[in-house]
Amino acid sequence: MNSTGSQNTQQIERLTFLLHNIPRLMRKRFEGRDNEHGLSAAQWRLLAWTMKEDGATQARLAELLEIEPISVSRLIDRMEEGGWVERRQGLEDRRIRMVFATPKAREAHKGIKKLVQQVFEEALTGLDEEARAALVSALETIAENLSDSEPICGSVQKAAEEVVSK
């Protein structure tokens, strides 16, 4: 293998490691914070998706969280016991269970966003605005390259704007 091929292989290996390891490190940092609500990163993710898609079915939440339906059911059980979410029967099909954020969750959402922003700021320390923009652009390109459906950039931008505006 020539030196260019070897460098490319090394870059791909580094990228693979980084794309896998960074979310793990961010979850670890987030969970290491002394958050006043005592929720895990998985519970925060469920809460964030519930705030974004209030009334989503348990199956939809499992899909969004990329976990098994039985796991999301147990997660929702714990969140419901803590007063963070509530399940309601579907209007047209009573077998369907929809999940809604409670007033307690809505109130805590502001503090959650602050904590998430702090973790991201720590992660991006040392990167100026130009480097941050380049990083986001590169990640959007990767996401679009891997997306089987609609372009990701617009939905990423829209989601980011929704998070900032809430």
Layout of strands and helices, then pairs:
Elements: H1 3-32, H2 41-52, E1 56-57, H3 58-65, H4 69-81, E2 85-89, E3 97-101, H5 103-123, H6 129-146, H7 152-165
Antiparallel strand pairs: 1-3, 2-3
Helix pairs in contact: 2-5, 3-4
Integer-rounded radius of gyration: 19 Å
Note poorly predicted spans: 159-166
Question: Structural class per helix/strand content?
Answer: mainly alpha
Averaged pLDDT:
85
In DSSP terms (H or I, runs of 4 or more residues), the helix count works out at 7
**Strand order across the largest sheet:** 1-3-2
Strand portion: 5-15%
What is the CATH level 1 assignment of the largest domain?
Mainly Alpha
- What overall geometry do the principal axes of the alpha carbons give? globular
What kind of sheet is the major sheet?
Answer: 3 strands, antiparallel
Ends apart, CA distance between termini: 52 Å
Task: Describe the model.
With 166 residues, the chain is mostly helical. The chain has three domains: 1-32; 39-108, Arc Repressor Mutant, subunit A; 126-166, no CATH class. It is built from seven helices and three strands. It has helices at 3-32, 41-52, 58-65, 69-81, 103-123, 129-146, 152-165; strands spanning 56-57, 85-89, 97-101. The chain has a three-stranded antiparallel beta sheet. A hairpin with a 7-residue loop joins strand 2 and strand 3 (97-101). Helix 2 packs across helix 5 and helix 3 (58-65) packs across helix 4. The model is unreliable at 159-166 (pLDDT under 50).
